[in-house]
Specification:
This protein is of the alpha/beta class and about 260 residues long. About 40% of the residues lie in helices and about 20% in strands. The chain has helices at about 5-30, 35-55, 90, 155-165, 175-180, 195-210, 240-255; strands at about 60-65, 80-85, 100-105, 110-120, 125, 145-150, 165-170, 185-190, 195, 210-215, 230, 235.
């Protein structure tokens, strides 16, 4: 069996199964004790993914939000980057569907496979069969930018004002990038910093589907760093990237402050 193809399937199947376990936890425990549910969700999904990857890919280190960092990953050619429960707050709130499970493979400097399960939406987006990206946006449609629902996105608000865009509040970073993949939004931009596991899997799928994904200065997103931290990110339709990168520069210059201000 082709190993690269098999890695795609492993990412998809594990993300989907972890998501199903999280749905069962929600059904069993309800939402009366959100902190308990969040803790159970993080632990259950991490333990399942970590154990499954240890069985299926025993030679590959795992970088997980919920696990201790394994320094062996810095010398490895293959590292799995996982977020067992992205959007923990939303997971613990009844009726919310904007939470996700992320499973990605970094290999020799690149993201080579990835999957984002959206369990409450009944879907998993993956590099096995990435979403089809329409060739063009509907003419005259207002731009839509996904933004955090819990933190005041001042930079995003300034940018949306300049572009005349609508801001669509949403939880998980994975759900936001998937919203761009599915045509619910056009742009995901974040300048407040995030960990690698917040974006590795959705970026892998976004790139495979043909979306633009970069730092907000247009430089390359890099993963499996010594400090697993990314200061900023832009994901959008490829034909919008030049305009958006210029808008980001203009907003920063006009305000006399970097785009991280207020995030």
């Amino acid at each position: 069996m082709n190993n690269i193809r098999n890695d795609h399937e492993v990412a998809r199947d594990l993300a989907t199964e972890a998501g199903q376990q999280l749905l069962k936890l929600r059904a069993k425990h309800g939402f009366d004790e959100p902190e308990v549910l969040r803790t159970l969700g993080d632990r259950t999904s991490h333990e399942f993914l970590f154990s499954a990857l240890g069985r299926l890919r025993p030679s590959d280190p795992v970088l997980s939000e919920e696990g201790a960092d394994n320094e062996a990953r810095l010398e490895s050619q293959r590292v799995w980057i996982i977020d067992p429960l992205d959007g923990t707050r939303e997971f613990s709130e009844s009726g919310r569907t904007d939470w996700a499970v992320h499973v990605a493979l970094w290999e020799n400097g690149e993201l080579t496979a990835g999957a984002v399960a959206l369990p409450a939406q009944g879907s998993t987006l993956s590099t096995v069969d990435p979403p089809w990206l329409p060739e063009e946006r509907p003419a005259g449609q207002r731009l839509r930018i996904t933004a955090s629902r819990t933190r005041s996105p001042e930079f995003v608000q300034r940018m949306s004002t300049q572009l005349g865009a609508e801001v669509v509040p949403m939880g998980s970073a994975g759900a936001k990038i998937c919203a761009v993949l599915l045509g619910i939004a056009d742009i995901y931009v974040h300048a407040g910093g995030q960990y690698e596991w917040d974006s590795a899997a959705p970026v892998a799928v976004a790139r495979e589907a043909g979306l633009h994904a970069s730092r907000i200065d247009g430089s390359r997103l890099t993963y499996n760093g010594e400090e697993p931290w990314l200061p900023d990110i832009l994901v959008c339709r490829p034909e919008l990237s030049g305009m958006l990168l210029a808008s980001i520069r203009d907003v920063a210059d006009r305000d006399g402050a970097g785009p991280h201000s207020g995030e």
